[in-house]
Design goal:
This protein is an alpha/beta fold. The protein is built from 13 helices and 23 strands. Helix 2 runs parallel beside helix 9 (about 325-335). The strands form seven sheets. It has a seven-stranded mixed β-sheet with strand order 4-5-3-13-14-15-19, sandwiched between helices. Strands 10-9-8-12 form a four-stranded antiparallel β-sheet, covered by helices on one side. A three-stranded antiparallel β-sheet has the order 6-7-11. The chain has three domains: about 40-100 and about 220-410, Rossmann fold (3-Layer(aba) Sandwich); about 110-210, Immunoglobulin-like (Sandwich), CATH 2.60.40; about 435-513, no CATH class.
Length: about 525
């Protein structure tokens, strides 16, 4: 009984017999699931306006440490974005994308240095790296050296003094002042103003005592226009939410920082629908009050499965404030995707600008407006902790246009899990895009796709949790393309325990079994 291995020829070329042909077994793949990446648009102490900042925590550096020289330090007061950093740090968020905005008329702090001619003219412009009023306390000092060289001492609030010696205005020199500072400094930028001095010794800046930069401004109060952002057809430069669109396929949970406005909020949920991710908005600056009439009326203007409305503002035990929308985004991004946001206890939160009683919480629940409220803590001992009061999207109708009558179909974790799987499937199936499906490719595709769902149901890594309870897939064997080969995928989510009912009877006549 001959054994063949990997035989693909014509068996009739062999002597008549019984053959066993050992075939290669399709190899399963281990999939790295896409990460949950927060996205925020808002005001920060400093940072670029036309670039988004993607930050990922490393084994040796927390996210706030990495962001410090670019967007500033985490804070318990002042800029809302820097207060947000405190919450991200305490929640141990791992990845996020940030877009900084400023009001109309913003400006960058700077200082003009004049050359060493008898009649001096401007030779160097020292500017803060980013626009805003933060740099008006920065200083610069010029110390003369021999011949054409000089020392530049620059001071910033975060890193103190930067001292650069043996600088020159010679563009061919490795010590050309503009080249050295622009390559090495986190906080300053130099511009050569092209003095007409005949010699390098005359062109170098004259000795200057420590002088503050000036002219930095955050501009006018930011409005919905700045949050939504702009696109310059001439330069291609973007700002605000339009800038975040460049990372639209990376971010999963998005919010404005401490801002809510009818026009801006609708642009936000349109972003979620466009990029298949979850967004979180506020209540248009309205307090809920006793009956919540104004907030409920605002909620009724929405019908989207890609946005959650969150009431209230909350405070960390350090004093740093955060909007309910930002807090909900964080809670969902750091928790397990299969769980409701109710599963996460915000141990660092100590208070709220608006506390809700049972009647108010009932109104919020009935109208799918989220909030955070004090609930029994999982630590026990009679402690209370801050958790979400409910966790639903703003959907009124389903994808078929039917009115949703059951909040089960509005759960945020359902939307997030579906979006997460859908976005991941693009990468799972990308291998066969544009290719004719041979029989072998169909088999490989089936193994790859089933492996993906198998690992969602039973992760390879024991530290990971199962994301789905079960699934089924139907393939069309007659198909020639992956888009029609994969016919139907049904995924059964875990049911999340939003209600816990403990029936209790206590008394002398209680029956004990």
């Amino acid at each position: 009984m001959p054994i063949l291995r990997g035989f693909t020829g014509d068996i009739r070329t062999m002597p008549p017999d019984i053959y066993v042909n050992e075939m290669p077994v399709p190899q399963e793949e281990s999939f790295n699931m896409p990460d949950f990446v927060l996205g925020f648009v808002g005001e920060f102490d400093r940072g670029p306006i036309n670039e988004y900042i993607y930050c990922s925590e490393t084994p040796t550096k927390r996210m706030t440490e990495i962001l410090r020289p670019v967007l500033g330090e985490m804070s318990d007061s002042g800029c809302k974005g820097n207060q947000l950093f405190t919450h991200l740090h305490m929640a141990r968020a791992k990845k996020a994308v940030f877009v900084r905005i400023l009001g109309a008329g913003y400006a960058t702090a700077n200082l003009i240095l004049t050359d060493s001619q008898e009649t001096p003219i401007p030779t160097l412009k020292i500017s803060a790296k980013y626009p805003g009023e933060y740099a008006n306390i920065f200083t610069a000092e010029v110390i003369a050296e021999k011949e054409d060289t000089f020392t530049l001492k620059l001071y910033s609030d975060l890193d103190g003094y930067e001292t650069y010696k043996n600088l020159t205005m010679d563009k061919q020199s490795k010590n050309y002042a503009v080249k050295v500072i622009n390559e090495k400094s986190y906080h300053f930028v130099l511009e050569d103003l092209e003095s007409n001095a005949e010699t390098l010794e005359q062109k170098k800046p004259s000795a200057t005592e420590q002088t503050q930069l000036s002219g930095g401004s955050n501009g006018a109060t930011v409005t919905a226009t700045e949050y939504i952002g702009t696109f310059d057809n001439g330069t291609g430069k973007r700002t605000g939410l339009k800038l975040l669109e460049l990372a639209g396929k990376q971010v999963t949970d998005i919010s404005y920082i401490g801002f809510s406005n009818a026009v801006a909020d609708k642009a936000l949920y349109a972003f979620g629908e466009k990029y298949n991710n979850m967004t979180y908005c506020g209540t248009n600056g309205l307090a809920f009050g006793e009956t919540g009439e104004d907030v409920i009326a605002y909620r009724e203007t929405y019908d989207t499965d890609f946005c959650q409305m969150v009431a209230g503002n909350y405070k960390a035990n350090t004093g740093a404030e955060i909007s309910g929308a930002c807090l909900s985004a964080i809670v969902h991004a750091v928790g397990n995707v299969e769980n409701s946001g109710l599963a996460e206890e915000c141990t660092w939160i100590s208070g709220s600008d608006e506390l809700f009683d049972f009647d108010q919480l009932s109104l919020l629940y009935q109208n799918q407006i989220a909030c955070f409220t004090l609930k029994p803590s999982e630590t026990g001992q009679g402690n209370l902790g801050w958790r979400m009061g409910n966790d639903y999207t703003l959907a009124v109708k389903d994808v078929s246009g039917e009115i949703i009558t059951d909040n089960e179909n509005r759960k945020v974790n359902k939307r997030r899990l579906n979006s997460w799987i859908e976005n991941a499937l693009f990468f799972v199936a990308a291998k066969w895009q544009g290719r004719a499906m041979t029989t072998k490719m169909k088999r490989d595709a089936e193994v790859r796709i089933r492996t993906f769902f198998d690992q969602l149901k039973q992760p390879v890594n024991e530290l990971d949790s199962a994301k789905i309870e079960d699934y089924s897939i139907v393939f069309d064997e007659s198909a020639n393309n992956i888009d029609v080969f994969l016919q139907n995928i049904n995924v059964k989510h875990f049911n999340t325990a939003e209600w816990v009912l403990l029936n209790f009877a206590g008394g002398t006549n209680a029956e004990i079994e």
